[in-house]
Design a protein that fits this description.
646 residues; alpha/beta; Alpha-Beta Plaits; 8-stranded mixed sheet; 7-stranded mixed sheet; 21 helices; Adenylyl/Guanylyl_Cyclase_3/4; A/G_cyclase; Adenylate cyclase; transmembrane helix; membrane
Amino acid sequence: MLKVIKYLTRQSYLLLLLAGFLTLVFLVSLRPPVIVQALASALSDSYYPWNPRSYPEELVFVEVENTSVQKFGRWPWSRSLIAEGLARLHQAEVIGVDIAFAEPTQPEDDQALAEVLASLPSIGGSFLNGPQARHLDEAAYGRVLDSSLMQVSDAQLIESQELELPISPILEAYPVLSALNIKSDADQRFRHYPLAFWVEDAAFPNLGVQMWRLGRLEDLVIEGQRTYLGDQQLPVDSLNRVKLNYYAKSDYQRLTFAEMMDDDWDPESLAGKWVILGISEAGITDLRSTPLGQLAGPLVHLTFVANLMDHSVLQDLYGKALLAVLLAAGLFLLLLLQLHKTWLRFLGYGLLLLGIYTLGLQLYLQANLWLEIFYPLAFVLMGIIGGELWLFLINKAKADQLRSAFGSYVAPALVEKIVEQGRELKLGGQRQQLTLLFSDLRNFTPTTEALETEELVSHLNRYFDAMITALQQYQGTLDKLMGDAVMGLFNAPLQDKDHAYHACLAAAAMQYALEDFNANYPEGDVHRLAMGIGVNTGEGVVGNIGGQKRFNYTAIGDVVNVAARLESATKEVNNEWKLALFKGEAKPCASVDILIGEATWEAVKDRLPCHFVGVLNLKGKSESLPAWVLDWRSLDKNWLEEQIQS
């Protein structure tokens, strides 16, 4: 539990950021602006092509299309011709007429049509707010009221005070009337089907609802936001509209008016069918823009009835259901943001986005549930951008911290490598192979006594600057400065496979740097300095070592002690070496300024001039150890500088 609390504390800013995005997206989903509605709907429209269903065979669209117009002439046709065609539909169970017949023609033709309609189970169509709309008179209102829903209370419906009804004889002939209107969404596409409209104080149903009432004898009941069709509760929006489930396949049962008028056409083929008569001829009909393209208006009504028949009416997921999806997406996103590797995070982002779309598609296909994936996708994209920005700032802060921590120890180029590999560094104590370099000034006491404090400090600073520069040029890390001594570390914090060799090069470069330093002063001047260096290779422990409030990046172990003891031995060995030379003994080099241990010698013996000086009794060591002198003077200075570049 404590670990969870610590984790949440560390992630508090990220959690607040994601929570802010989630809240914003959720609030927008409750009252989306028009442009958001359009974007959300357009994105989810891609579900429809996956719909495996087809229009039920019970539904037939009798259409006035191009071949019919070619056969019978331009629309509008004689109503006696339409009456003759309608009379052939007497075997149909329900006939919805998606034609208003709002203008009078020849009286005998109008009467012929009225007589046929009165003999059929037909439903008349009328337009709300049509181009020739008029207020309802008492007779018209009576007909509307007879066709209206009787069980409606506290309902929110689209309102209209005007209605364009069929002309008088046809109006009275229809057994029942309906509306023919469909209201588009924000992007002018038709996705929702209004169940009914307020016409004055009457709840006037749409064509599809009336067909169901007449064909199934099930009434539509609206009680506020609860809407029932028989025993089935319909998922509706705030205006009592149903979301249409369009069919990807356009293989609806169709019968052209011209085919129906053929002498050999059999009316029995429509026995028990539900028929919608309408116009699909381009230039005549009012085409509707849908998620699957342009459809004739009658097919939108047909789609609603088909959804009722195959129980595929869509249920929108919003409110608490959408919030649950957002929370789940946020949890996955939070987990992905914990991944260290950028490519792995972005692979996860892609899979998460794909998973959200797949979830929405499966909910649609398997459960008729409609998830507007725009909102979870928008939340995840905002979270990715915000999360990556947060990670960038965190990594930048860590990089600055690493630069600050190691800037005093290692060369700038090496600091950048540490920053690049910062996540892979193990800054806790760990055991590994190391090479240690210790340097210390010889006979420094006279200098300290001769110089004033300020001058002494300035003199040492110039000296240390030269030594640290030489150390860092060969991938060395400055461990610490101890008085006038320098402790250098190789193969940490970054790996260096040739650390013993580089430590020896650094030691030689430090001696050359001291030689250049002394060149500013004449022989015998107290400013001139002498230095001994000890180099040793072996296993040690390196890392942040210290207490909770104070620690230092350093190395400990016998390898460190031996390197320090080798440096201490340089003074005594050098004196013995020079005494031997004074006596006329042959020595391979003039002085002993750098002593290296056996493991170091093994690593460099074939590449650097090293000479055995003997087995030394080092202070604090119970056993004698062999040591070698590194003849730094036989290494060309220019060659040393070339090794830096390589």
